[in-house]
Amino acid sequence: MADVLKKVPVREQDPKVRATNFDEVCLGYNKDEAVEEAQRCLGCKKAKCMEGCPVQIHIPDFIGAVKEGDFAKAYSVISESSALPAICGRVCPQESQCEGRCIRGIKGEAVSIGKLERFVADWAREQGIKPAAPAEKNGKKVAVIGSGPAGLTCAGDLAKLGYDVTIFEALHKAGGVLVYGIPEFRLPKDGVVLPEVENVKSLGVKIETDVIIGKSVTIDELMENEGFDAVFIGSGAGLPKFMGIPGETACGVFSANEFLTRNNLMKAFDEKYDTPIFHGKKVAVVGGGNVAMDAARTALRLGAEVHIIYRRSEEELPARKEEVHHAKEEGIIFDLLTNPVEILEDENDWVKGIRCVRMELGEPDASGRRRPVEVEGSEFDIDVDTVIMSLGTSPNPLISSTTKGLEINKRKCIVAAEDTGATSKAGVFAGGDAVTGAATVILAMGAGKEAAKGIHEYLSQK
Amino acid sequence: MFKIVKAEQLSANVYKKVVLAPRVAASCQPGQFIIVRLDETGERIPLTICDYDREAGTVTIVFQPIGVSTSKMVDLKEGDYFLDFVGPLGRPSELVTDDFEEVKKKKVIFIAGGVGTAPVYPQAKWLHDHGVECDIIIGARSKDILIMEEEMSKVGNLYLCTDDGSYGFKGVGTAMLEKLVSEGHHYDLCVAIGPMIMMKFACLTTKKLGIPTIVSMNPIMVDGTGMCGACRVVVGDEVKFACVDGPEFDGHKIDFDQAMKRAAMYKTEEGRRMLAYKEGKTHHGGCGNCGGDK
Ligand SMILES: Cc1cc2nc3c(=O)[nH]c(=O)nc-3n(C[C@H](O)[C@H](O)[C@H](O)COP(=O)(O)OP(=O)(O)OC[C@H]3O[C@@H](n4cnc5c(N)ncnc54)[C@H](O)[C@@H]3O)c2cc1C
Ligand SMILES: Cc1cc2nc3c(=O)[nH]c(=O)nc-3n(C[C@H](O)[C@H](O)[C@H](O)COP(=O)(O)OP(=O)(O)OC[C@H]3O[C@@H](n4cnc5c(N)ncnc54)[C@H](O)[C@@H]3O)c2cc1C
Ligand code: SF4
Ligand code: SF4
Ligand code: FES
């Protein structure tokens, strides 16, 4: 019998091998491993883990079913609360959510809730289990803007209630950050994301790609001319930030969004695709979140030596622990307590280095994290030929600037009620990153669910 | 899928496609652009809207084959489809959005260079349709690559120039402008659209002549919605995203030298793909002669 204080280890691709391919890093549990891991769950009456899950999946129940080998039941328990378990099981920051609260975690390691959820969802997909069939159509039309986790969830829930739903997506492919941002090696596109999108479609949801709301057509036009009774905005937070330091427009400086979009959405890593990507020999990625880890590990796979430059210390890295761990295993170099002040250019305006200063941690700031302060006279240069800026993103003003009466806050986020998603404009609801600023898949999904309820209530009264 | 309802070759190296895209046709304005994608493995290619017919639901694009994607586009015939056709992107020309009373008072000169003639057309046509008269200079290397002479002559006073003198005035567009001004023509605004190098020289000339100038920038783009930042251009002391803040900017504030370097960023990478497209995948590296794939 294995050590009950430890998680059943999950099989992963060897770091040396995976550093050269784009296949999924984590291979997941098989049936036996899943059942064994499920045994570790104490089936708590007052399950702490559920408090940590933003959509309150009934964790002890679904793990209980896995214990008994009844995976179909486990899937139906999860499906009551989550529409995208194969995705959340892979990308949720479990250590700070469900697993962070697990009783098992007090003495030993928490139960691998995420990996179990992933196992159940993958199993259901392999069995061809589909979500429940849609209800009878009620004749009311709802437009959903954006096909990320918020939009997909909202659309799916509304379709189940009988609404005639159309998703409008600006890009040529549905999925939002799930297809353009998060790389293949963490979240397989054809294997995992596409089937989720197909599930939503099988509920009768129409997806119209290549439509930019605010440009191709406005929300007001959708409601006035195209007969939509309500609109959900799940347009995400896609605008990249730059630092504003000298040299930032040099050739070879990219936003993480550009770098990841070229590689994930446009599949630049695959020779069959026409879109190019510039992959230098030595790359600096500035930032410490999930996006920075993804950009760094992508550059590594394209053949570069990669440095992550982050101004605080390891403890403050906002990325998921698992990603930081994987990045290190693969050979990413972490230059912590380091902050760029200038990008150095050669005579052809190409990046030739990045000038940084050392930082130390001072007093805690508003976010509760200790504020990094510059160590005077500590300037030094790192030779690199590519710089990828990964400093966070904010919502795109395309929609807010073209919709009459839609209130936004000073961070350009759409103002919406937390429990219903209702905005300042009648019939218009919003949720996900467009409302919260860059957050997580599960929060966006949760917001999509609440908004679907909000829209149903609104249209039932109308 | 977006159907091509008409395909035409305009000159030795310039092609026109009229595409059925009702949403774009309903909302586009002069100065805006679209992004097309040919097929599943294709790049996203930005192209300026050259004309539109709101009733028929069609949008016209005019392009020059440059790399793999645009070369593949040449072969598309009437009845074929673009996989994706998204837009309109970018801001409409200020001529269209500014207070019309002010616009009406302006004497506008357009300078169109090569394939840049296409994006000038809807702007000149818009002015013409609104009863405002304008002058248009079209510059091309030689007669056989000059395009849209007939359409243009209907919407403005046309001045044609060729570098080699094979047609019209012998010389570049900016020389024609200087000639017109020296002959007593007065202009309140110049709109120059064409290759980056042509816009750079047009701006140097109009600065000297004191004519405010608008240019249409065509940096490398990916999404066209403000999401990637690939299209960054330096305008004065600000960094702008051409796809959402432009593509038209005050030409006197543009750092053209930098813009040109950024436009060439993927040259080697694209060149390799073009070779592979034209000659098949014979360049696989490993022969020791070309340094392989790096
Ligand atoms: C690289 C990267 C890695 C991440 N890693 C993780 C992780 O490990 N775990 C985690 O939980 N979260 C992660 N996140 C965050 C997470 O992906 C987002 O919080 C989540 O996707 C937000 O979902 P959303 O539906 O609100 O928006 P998005 O997923 O951003 O989807 C919005 C969609 O709307 C479309 N759109 C925008 N404007 C318009 C318009 N005007 N008209 C039509 N369509 C429009 C966009 O094209 C996009 O497809 C990561 C994010 C990135 C970028
Ligand atoms: C807003 C906008 C409007 C445009 N309008 C038109 C138009 O109306 N007609 C037209 O013919 N072209 C137009 N272009 C340029 C057109 O998009 C490029 O020629 C095209 O993307 C090249 O694609 P390709 O795959 O064939 O060549 P690639 O293989 O991508 O590139 C070949 C070479 O061209 C360079 N290049 C790539 N993209 C551009 C670019 N955007 N500008 C200049 N050089 C580039 C590359 O560095 C490379 O050296 C426009 C570009 C923008 C951004
Ligand atoms: S959805 Fe996320 S937080 Fe909730 S149980 Fe699953 S992995 Fe944990
Ligand atoms: S807290 Fe941990 S042990 Fe208890 S039910 Fe949740 S997962 Fe199982
Ligand atoms: S093309 Fe991506 S931001 Fe402009």
Automatic annotation (TrEMBL), chain A:
<feature type="domain" description="FAD/NAD(P)-binding">
    <location>
        <begin position="140"/>
        <end position="448"/>
    </location>
</feature>
<dbReference type="InterPro" id="IPR006004">
    <property type="entry name" value="SudA-like"/>
</dbReference>
<dbReference type="Pfam" id="PF14691">
    <property type="entry name" value="Fer4_20"/>
</dbReference>
<dbReference type="InterPro" id="IPR009051">
    <property type="entry name" value="Helical_ferredxn"/>
</dbReference>
<dbReference type="InterPro" id="IPR023753">
    <property type="entry name" value="FAD/NAD-binding_dom"/>
</dbReference>
<dbReference type="InterPro" id="IPR036188">
    <property type="entry name" value="FAD/NAD-bd_sf"/>
</dbReference>
<keyword id="KW-0560">Oxidoreductase</keyword>
<dbReference type="GO" id="GO:0004355">
    <property type="term" value="F:glutamate synthase (NADPH) activity"/>
</dbReference>
<feature type="domain" description="Dihydroprymidine dehydrogenase">
    <location>
        <begin position="18"/>
        <end position="128"/>
    </location>
</feature>
<dbReference type="InterPro" id="IPR028261">
    <property type="entry name" value="DPD_II"/>
</dbReference>
<dbReference type="Pfam" id="PF07992">
    <property type="entry name" value="Pyr_redox_2"/>
</dbReference>
<protein>
    <submittedName>
        <fullName>NADPH-dependent glutamate synthase</fullName>
        <ecNumber>1.4.1.13</ecNumber>
    </submittedName>
</protein>
UniProtKB/TrEMBL annotation, chain B:
<dbReference type="InterPro" id="IPR019480">
    <property type="entry name" value="Dihydroorotate_DH_Fe-S-bd"/>
</dbReference>
<dbReference type="InterPro" id="IPR012165">
    <property type="entry name" value="Cyt_c3_hydrogenase_gsu"/>
</dbReference>
<dbReference type="InterPro" id="IPR017927">
    <property type="entry name" value="FAD-bd_FR_type"/>
</dbReference>
<keyword id="KW-0479">Metal-binding</keyword>
<dbReference type="InterPro" id="IPR017938">
    <property type="entry name" value="Riboflavin_synthase-like_b-brl"/>
</dbReference>
<keyword id="KW-0274">FAD</keyword>
<keyword id="KW-0001">2Fe-2S</keyword>
<protein>
    <submittedName>
        <fullName>Sulfide/dihydroorotate dehydrogenase-like FAD/NAD-binding protein</fullName>
    </submittedName>
</protein>
<dbReference type="GO" id="GO:0046872">
    <property type="term" value="F:metal ion binding"/>
</dbReference>
<dbReference type="GO" id="GO:0050660">
    <property type="term" value="F:flavin adenine dinucleotide binding"/>
</dbReference>
<feature type="binding site">
    <location>
        <position position="228"/>
    </location>
    <ligand>
        <name>[2Fe-2S] cluster</name>
    </ligand>
</feature>
<feature type="binding site">
    <location>
        <position position="231"/>
    </location>
    <ligand>
        <name>[2Fe-2S] cluster</name>
    </ligand>
</feature>
<feature type="binding site">
    <location>
        <position position="243"/>
    </location>
    <ligand>
        <name>[2Fe-2S] cluster</name>
    </ligand>
</feature>
<dbReference type="Pfam" id="PF10418">
    <property type="entry name" value="DHODB_Fe-S_bind"/>
</dbReference>
<dbReference type="GO" id="GO:0006221">
    <property type="term" value="P:pyrimidine nucleotide biosynthetic process"/>
</dbReference>
<feature type="binding site">
    <location>
        <begin position="62"/>
        <end position="64"/>
    </location>
    <ligand>
        <name>FAD</name>
    </ligand>
</feature>
<keyword id="KW-0408">Iron</keyword>
<feature type="domain" description="FAD-binding FR-type">
    <location>
        <begin position="1"/>
        <end position="95"/>
    </location>
</feature>
<keyword id="KW-0411">Iron-sulfur</keyword>
<dbReference type="InterPro" id="IPR039261">
    <property type="entry name" value="FNR_nucleotide-bd"/>
</dbReference>
<dbReference type="GO" id="GO:0051537">
    <property type="term" value="F:2 iron, 2 sulfur cluster binding"/>
</dbReference>
<dbReference type="GO" id="GO:0016491">
    <property type="term" value="F:oxidoreductase activity"/>
</dbReference>
